[in-house]
Specification:
The protein is an alpha+beta fold and about 500 residues long. The chain contains 20 helices and twelve strands. Its cofactor is heme.
C-alpha cells in the first residue's frame, strides 16, 4: 500500500524543480513537523553589529542587493574599501574588515576557516566536500611540501600526457578543458597514486565532483538554512553527485586494498598523500574518510590551479611581448642547472614567478580572503566586536588595487614582482608567488594559509614552461582586449568558452 508520505515526496521533488518561492505551501507541510528547528533557528540568530550595510541606501531592497553582489562583487568591494561593513549575500551577511584590522587575527583560534567553508560554500554534511582537518594539513606541510622528488615526476607526467596537439598553423583552441585535465592528472599523482593518474575514470570523478558539488550547493543555498535538512534530498543534481562519490570511493577502496595486500607498502614512489595518511591519521582501512580527503583535495587543487594556469595563458595571449623574455629565462636557468629543471631551477625563475603572481593579483580565484566564522565573540584592534556566528572576510579584490601597495594597479605588469625583488635586497625573499602577507592574500593568511601552495607552485610553473616552449599564443584577430571572466558571488572563473590562437614553435 502506498502511504501518504510515499505519494507526497515525489510531488515535492517535482515541485522543487520549479521556483522555490512558488512552492512555499508544499514545504510548509514538512516544516510543521520540524517546529523545534524554528525555535533553534531564532535562538541561534547572529546579532550583527549596528553598521551601515553596503549599498543599503542606494539599493534598499535586500533581494536586489543580493543580485548586485552576485553580479558586481568587484565594484562593491572597491567602493567600500577601508570600511568595516556588512555585505548582503545569498547565504546571509558577511562582515568585510579593512586590512588595518588584520593584525593579530591570523593566529586567532576562535576564527574558523572550516566553519566558514561549511556554511558559505561546501555544506559538507550534504556534499562531503570541505576543508582538511588540522592533522591532515600537518601531513601536507611535513611530508608533501619539503620533497624535491615530485618535480621530475610531474614533469614526466606533463610531457607524456600533454593534452594538446602540434599546430603547424595558428589554430583556435579552448584551453580550459585541456588545462583542467592536466591539472587533474597531476593532482591524482600527488594525492592518490601513480595508477590513478593514468586512470581516466578517476580523473573524470575528480574533476566532475568539483563542478557537480558547486552547482548543487548553489541550488541548495537558494533555500533558507532551516529548510535545507528537509529539501536537500530533492534538489536537482544530488543523485549524480553522490553516485560519483560512491564510484570514487570504490576506486579509493581498491587502492587501499592493494596497499594492504603488499604489506602496507606505499602505492607509489615518491609516496602520495594517501600513503602518508594511511600510515598516520586515517589508518589503512577507513575508505570513507580517505575518499572524503581525496575529494576535498581535488576540490581545493583542481579548480584553483586550472583557473590560475588558464588566466596566465589569457594574459600571455593578451600581452605576447612577455613570451620572449620568459623563454629566455627558462633557457638560461635550465643551462645553469646542467640542462635540468629541478626545484632550484623553478625557484630561480623570478620572471615566470612574477608573471603568475601578477595574474593572480588581477584575476584571483576569489575576490575575498581570510574567510572566517567566529566561534565565539572576537574583539578587533579598534574595539569593534565580531559576534559569535558572524562571518568575516578581507576584500582581496580591492586590496590588490590599492595604490599604496601597487603603482598603476589597474595595469597588468607581468614583471611587477620581479622588479620589486631586484630593486631591494630585502625584497628578494618576499614578493614571491607563494608569499603570504598583508598585501599577498591569494593563498590566504595566518595559520590557515593554503598548505599546498608550494606543490601547486611547482605544478603550475612546469605546465606554464611547457606551454611557453611549445606554442606561440595570441588572441584571435577579432578580439582586441582581454576577454572578461565569469564572476559570481566573488568567485572569478575563466570562461570555459575562451578561445586562444596557438601555433607550435620549432622544437629543439
Amino acid at each position: 500500500m502506498t502511504s501518504h508520505s510515499d505519494a507526497y515526496y515525489p510531488i515535492l521533488a517535482a515541485k522543487l524543480e520549479q521556483n522555490p518561492l512558488a512552492v512555499a505551501g508544499w514545504v510548509a507541510l514538512s516544516v510543521a513537523l520540524f517546529a523545534a528547528m524554528f525555535i533553534w533557528s531564532f535562538a541561534a540568530n547572529v546579532r550583527m553589529p549596528k553598521l551601515p550595510i553596503a549599498m543599503q541606501q542606494e539599493v534598499p531592497n535586500k533581494k536586489k542587493r543580493i543580485e548586485l553582489f552576485i553580479k558586481d562583487t568587484r565594484r562593491l568591494l572597491i567602493e567600500s574599501y577601508n570600511k568595516y561593513f556588512p555585505l548582503t549575500k545569498i547565504t546571509g551577511t558577511n562582515i568585510i574588515i579593512p586590512l588595518d584590522l588584520l593584525h593579530g587575527l591570523g593566529s586567532q583560534k576562535s576564527l574558523s576557516f572550516s566553519a566558514f567553508l561549511e556554511e558559505e560554500f561546501s555544506m559538507k554534511k550534504y556534499t562531503k566536500v570541505g576543508n582538511l582537518d588540522q592533522k591532515q594539513i600537518s601531513i601536507v606541510n611535513k611530508k608533501l611540501n619539503p620533497t624535491l622528488q615530485y618535480v621530475p615526476v610531474i614533469q614526466d607526467l606533463v610531457r607524456r600526457h600533454w593534452p594538446l596537439d602540434d599546430y603547424k598553423t595558428s589554430t583556435a583552441v579552448k584551453p580550459w578543458p585541456h588545462v583542467m585535465r592536466m591539472v587533474s592528472r597531476i593532482s591524482a599523482r600527488i594525492f592518490h597514486s601513480a595508477a590513478s593518474a593514468e586512470n581516466d575514470h578517476w580523473l573524470d570523478i575528480a574533476s566532475e565532483h568539483v563542478h557537480s558539488a558547486v552547482v548543487w550547493t548553489e541550488n541548495l543555498k537558494k533555500w533558507p538554512a532551516i529548510l535545507r535538512p528537509i529539501v536537500y534530498r530533492f534538489v536537482k543534481g544530488r543523485g549524480y553527485m553522490m553516485q560519483r562519490f560512491e564510484e570514487g570511493k570504490a576506486l579509493v577502496g581498491n587502492s587501499l586494498a592493494e596497499r594492504k595486500a603488499h604489506g602496507g607498502k606505499p602505492l607509489s614512489e615518491p609516496q602520495t598523500l594517501l600513503d602518508y595518511l594511511a600510515d598516520s591519521v586515517l589508518g589503512p582501512d577507513d575508505v570513507e574518510s580517505h575518499t572524503i580527503a581525496q575529494i576535498n583535495l581535488c576540490v581545493a587543487a583542481i579548480q584553483s590551479m586550472s583557473s590560475t594556469v588558464t588566466q596566465c595563458l589569457m594574459d600571455l595571449a593578451t600581452h605576447p611581448e612577455y613570451a620572449p623574455e620568459l623563454l629566455k629565462e627558462v633557457q638560461r636557468v635550465r643551462e645553469a642547472r646542467g640542462g635540468v629543471i629541478d626545484k632550484q631551477a623553478l625557484t630561480d625563475m623570478w620572471m615566470l614567478d612574477s608573471f603568475i603572481k601578477e595574474t593572480q593579483r588581477l584575476n584571483p580565484p576569489d575576490l575575498t580572503s581570510f574567510q572566517r566564522k567566529a566561534l565565539s565573540d572576537v574583539t578587533l584592534s579598534n574595539g569593534l566586536r565580531v559576534p559569535k556566528g558572524a562571518r568575516i572576510v578581507l576584500p582581496t579584490g580591492a586590496i590588490n588595487m590599492d595604490r599604496e601597495f601597487f603603482q598603476d594597479p589597474e595595469t597588468f605588469n607581468g614583471f611587477r614582482y620581479y622588479e620589486m625583488r631586484t630593486a631591494k635586497e630585502e625584497s628578494r625573499s618576499t614578493n614571491q608567488m607563494v608569499t603570504v602577507g598583508k598585501k599577498d592574500l591569494t593563498w590566504g593568511y595566518g595559520r590557515h594559509a593554503c598548505p599546498g601552495r608550494y606543490i601547486a607552485e611547482v605544478a603550475m610553473k612546469l605546465v606554464m614552461i611547457e606551454f611557453l616552449a611549445r606554442y606561440d599564443i595570441r588572441l584571435p584577430d577579432d578580439v582586441k582586449t582581454r576577454p572578461k571572466n565569469v564572476e559570481f558571488e566573488g568567485l572569478v572563473i575563466p570562461d570555459p568558452e575562451w578561445v586562444l590562437m596557438m601555433k607550435s614553435r620549432p622544437r629543439a
